[in-house]
Amino acid sequence: MIKRQRLILLFIALLASPSQAGVVVIVNAENTASDFSQRQLVDLYMGRNLYFPNGQLALRLDQSPSSEIRRTFYESLVGKSVAQVNAYWARLLFTGRASPPQVIRTSKGLLQAIKNNPNAVGYIDEKELEDGVKVIARVN
Amino acid sequence: MPLYTLTCYRDVSQHPLVLALIWLSLFPANSLADDFAPNRFSFNGFATLGAVRGGSEALGYRQDVAEDGVFEDDWSLKTDSLLALQFGIRLSDNLDAAMQFVYEDRATNGIKESLKWAYLRYRFSPEFTARAGRIGFDLFMLSDYRQLGFSYLWARPPIEFYGPLAFEYFDGADIGYSAPLGIGTLRAKFFAGSSDTAVDFIDDNDKLRLDEAIGATVNWETTHWQLRVSATSVEFSDDLQQTYGTDIFIAALLAAAQLGWTDAEGIAEQIELKDVTANYYAVGISYDNAPWVIQTEINYFDAEEHLFKSYSGRYLSIGYRIASTTLYGLMARGKQMTSRDKIPAPPAALAPFLTPLQESLQTLYDFNYINQHSVSLGFRWDIRYNLALKSQWDRTWVEDAGGLLWDQKNNATQKETIDTYSLNLNVIF
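YS: structure for the whole thing
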């Protein structure tokens, strides 16, 4: 009986544990940016500052709106759901203040985009890291 | 059977908004392609399909003074529904252009009124930007997104605060500054231009015009807090007197003065609308930290005219999130700062001739008076990351003759309590 309860608990624990080991923010390996603070990340992804410290315009990339990693990223960064972040971005977009990060639907595509563009910035699951990109922050 | 199908199809196709909404809700949040070069062109939009039931026999519900009203026992789909399309083009890293069209019900409607903005923007540096063209007024918390239902909690912006502000855009220029300040970001903006808007005051198809509008907004924002202060000075166009239809009254009053009504000349001066200027001030604070979302704003419209009295609107909104649903309550009040004017009676000997004039003048004064408050309860349910359903109940207490925010069918309205029920679907794409 106790054994069965343990099994159930273990099963629940497995279900509840996030599938991602950690979310990392990455840039092109040649980008001079390093060690972004939480504040810099929030400013970048909430459209308050669209530039890297070296003055280059950042090409901000986002994951698919229905993906788990996007949910985790914004939950950890600003404590808001994807719908709340979308409502916030809608304000900036439809008042002409700033455009939201560009969506790339797969982590593979996102990695490729970052390798090809020295000013791109995105986030992926730590487990999917590859050569040619550089981690500048960890969000959870 | 084929006939039946055809009728159904026709019924639906008569509501292009219904079709547009269904079609658009199938789109992803941003119509952004999966390429990795920065997009040169962008196309986005938002829409609201809103059903509303409200108003009384005498007072018709409307969102702002540019709209036709919904009267007792009517359900309306057209008053709260709208469709907006936005086009952007990036000409270089520093130069871009944008255009936004909003299709909705208005007292005067056409392509010119539908064009909400069309501007060129230049970024001088990460801190400074300048725009020129048609630009949205940035005077309050919902700056120029009061029609973007997806971005706020309520079925509509609180009418006591937003209703009297019919002006939505100006033709001119602005300069914006943005920089980190403390734990937040400071944004400041200066703007100048001219503006017009459709209104539905005395006759249909009237327009209010501003020859000059100059103002500034300062905004400080963190992840959870937003503070905002703005001040604007406006100068109305000289045709204000025609819009308000006071020419004929002035002529009649001057004639009455000749007949011996000593008060008549003074009243004629009161309703003369020449060189009218006004100042507008607003302060807003919002706090958004799951599960709480709280927002309040106060504005003050400072004007000297009797037909155009100083006005103040305010509201407090408190929302509580439970998973993807937010429950909220809202209290709002809108009132002119001086009491309602009373036209003195003409001398007894002249009363048979002049009482109708006195009554019409009283009606004119009453017609331009605002005094009401309301309480609202509602919920917002985020169905999808780009689709939200909202429902709201409002109870509004309109004081005697205080109904300018409503479409007034009869002239002098009595004190009334009116319920408004709204259900709407908001999408962005």
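YS: worth flagging: The radius of gyration of chain A is 17 Å.
IM: good catch. Also The longest strand of chain A covers residues 23-28.
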